[in-house]
Amino acid sequence: GPWHNYHSAGTLRLDKYASLLTYTGPDGEKAWPKKYPFCGGVFQSPIDFHRDILQYDSNLSPLEFIGYNVPSTDRFTLTNNGHSVKMYLSPTMHLRNLPFEYTASQLHLHWGNRNKSEGSEHTVSGKHFAAELHIVHYNSEKYPDVTAAMDKADGLAVLAILLEIGPFNPSYEKIFRHFQNVKYKDQMVQVPGFNIQELLPDRPDEYYRYEGSLTTPPCYPSVLWTVFRHPVKISQEQLLALETAMYCTESDDPEPLEMVDNFRNVQEFRERLVFISFREGKLYKCFYAKKQHSNLCKTEILMWWSRCLNHYKNMGIPFSSPDLYFINHSICRIQYSWSSKKALWTRCTKGKLKC
To answer: Which residues cross the membrane (predicted)?
Structure first.
């Protein structure tokens, strides 16, 4: 999650968290709430995305990335802040199509270690990815800078990209090839500008959206998360460079400490939903997959239908209501009014619906 030593002309640097941040041992994440009460509070991140909490939302439109193509004459500062590698971004970069306009602040990474490449923060159905990239933005319509925004409920918007092993990725190499110059805490190097949009997956319109927190102390619940559905691939060699190049300690430290496993464990996500911009799962197959046989469609709708009915009976909701329900139950996730469900069902039973 967003790290907090904001770096620009004349802005104070919030490095006080960096030196204290540990993931394991007596001062590990279990101990964070003692010093930082928000870490033990609500709306915490990261979380696991599993079927029961996902709700399709047709209003989730693709984000607009303004000014992401930064000319190579501009320079980004890449730094080792003692718990991650972080790159300050150009204030000309903006995100639109969110409740507010957000201005880019920095990006950073989370990863595991060379023996266990499972360093993503967010997980999907319990599965970790190799690493995770976060691009942090602050609400520039309401706040002057990231420091002012980071403790406000509507302060931050973070894009998360899940990384997995695949072919060599030239776009990520534009950052990764500089790791040797930031081996130790507080070292910095200049990186030529490039198109930051290249770091995103091919289908950035498909994503998970929820309200959560910074994933490091002070864990403010101030983040609107957009976690892209499709992972981006980097090579085994690139991942190894990320897992082995850096240290948490300064260059003159007699006991260098490797920078590994800098991810927070998943947090409880009770009584809440994650909204998704893509249709997913068996419930949708019947309605949207062209190749399916209509008999399968009938069985699937029948199962879904009876489970839905039971769910509503149990909740004491009259199912004959013509209202359009936002159905939060995992079984009844499709948002149809009673009449259109009935129409679908009739078409299906008469074999008119080609699934």
So the answer is: none
